[in-house]
Amino acid sequence: MTLPLTYSAEVAAARAEKRPIVALESTIITHGMPWPQNVETARAVEEEVRKSGAVPATIVVMNGQIHIGLEADQLEALGQAKDVMKLSRADLAACVAMRRTGATTVAATMICAQLAGIDVFATGGIGGVHRGAETSFDISADLSELSQTAVTVVAAGAKAILDIPKTMEVLETMGVPVISVGQDSIPAFWSRESHLKAPLRMDTAAEIAASHKMRAVLGLKGGQLVTNPIPKDAEIPREEIVPVIEAALAEAEAQNISAKEVTPFLLDRIFEHTKGRSLDANIALVLNNARLASAIAKELSATR
Ligand code: PSU
Ligand code: MN
Prior knowledge:
Layout: E1 5-7, H1 9-16, E2 21-24, H2 27-32, H3 37-51, E3 55-62, E4 65-68, H4 72-80, E5 85-87, H5 92-97, E6 102-104, H6 106-115, E7 120-122, H7 133-136, H8 141-148, E8 152-155, H9 164-173, E9 178-181, E10 200-202, H10 205-217, E11 224-227, H11 238-254, H12 262-273, H13 277-302
Parallel strand pairs: 1-4, 2-3, 2-7, 5-6, 7-8, 8-11, 9-10, 9-11
Antiparallel strand pairs: 3-4, 3-6
Helix pairs in contact: 3-4, 3-13, 6-8, 10-13, 11-12
The protein binds pseudouridine-5'-monophosphate and manganese (II) ion (MN).
């Protein structure tokens, strides 16, 4: 059986010429941001990757084909599509087999990136251990994916809607390196500071690329989580965002939101409560992550 992969023209050319490629996820488009900002952001992120000297590969499943890179009209259509599945490791094969359409989370994007030979992936925030996980057991499959799939994921830290200390503990148990960029602490998505010490710190793309390659040399499976703080001028300070998060969490609890709906629900409520400011910050941090991921991809392809 051949792999159900379809490459965009741009990504196919980049593969043939062995140019650096950066994977991008699609759940942020379909479940993470409202239309039309979702499509505008996805386009801007792709453009940022190109400006940084790499080729963007937005990953999504459409009608049973795993797309590695989207044509402009496909991206536009996805931004307004209804009934799009949210795919993690558990759902990916089923979605392809049923010829359905699904957006890839961090976990599923990592799997598809690896199938396509892409080492680096830029996103906003990863899923993690939810607050109250001791009773709900809600721990994102993104964490176990990081422990088994050899892709370096650039994110702005875990969102404060999660339990960040527990998320870090699970990553440590699973043997996932968490590398903070340019600071000693872990960034907290909309804010630069979580006041939690990062397990590892690196200040250059070259170091991160070298560490990615060394894992392969040593036969260590799994990827790396790179936590890149949001640019200063775009951040929402912790004191401001924490009460908003608390309010959104209370609403989720009152409305019995569970499972896959939790993350999209919270993001939407926080967007409303901050009158869109959380979205502006989200866009700025994804662009910032796209730049760093491109620099890492370039280092990896230069030393190959
Ligand atoms: N963080 C964001 N926006 C998002 C997500 C995370 O800022 O859209 C998405 C990612 O695709 C991530 C997923 O992989 O949510 C995690 O979902 P869950 O918590 O259900 O595993
Ligand atoms: Mn979950």
